Amino acid sequence: MSAKLNRQRLIKEILGSKIVSSQEELAQLLSERNVYATQATLSRDFAELGVIRTVTEKGIRYIMNSDEAGKQISKLIGYEIISIDHNESLIVLRTLAGRAQGVAHFIDRLNRKEILGTVGGDDTVLIIPDKSQSIEIIIEFIKNLMSTNQY
Predict the structure, then answer these.
(1) 143, pLDDT greater than 80
(2) Nearby residues of 37 by Cβ (< 8 Å), 6 or more positions away
(3) How many Å separate Cα 10 from the centre of its chain?
(4) What are the E-state strand segments in the chain?
(5) Which end of the chain is more exposed for a tag (fewer CB within 10 A), N or C?
(6) Structural fold of domain 3-65
(7) How confident is the model at residue 69 (pLDDT cuts 50, 70, 90)?
(8) CATH number of the 78-147 domain
């Protein structure tokens, strides 16, 4: 088994059996099993495995993505978006500081046909629609994400 496959198997095993709240903690747990990984490597593994960070009653933890996890992250994304603006060709989202890349990644993973792609900065996400007629559909979708998370 390759080192990558072994590491990813261990990540799944650890996340399935322990509460892990940081990549540093996971790196330590892996090193106890003689598997060493940098934060960048863990980030790539998380993306490939569908690992997400979520809030539970016991605090923040990393979990394997599932339908329920997807619902939880969708709620968080709605909280992180502050505003939506657009012109005739592009959509701009303002997010909480440091959260634009996470929001952009979430939107990309939805694989909506109306969205060609996103670019995430620190607090701004640029959404590129497939055509100008899709802008209203995308904005409505984003507003629904935001409004379903309001009290």
Answers:
(1) yes
(2) 7, 27, 30, 45
(3) 21
(4) 51-56, 59-64, 81-86, 91-95, 115-120, 124-129
(5) C
(6) Arc Repressor Mutant, subunit A (1.10.10)
(7) very low
(8) 3.30.1360.40
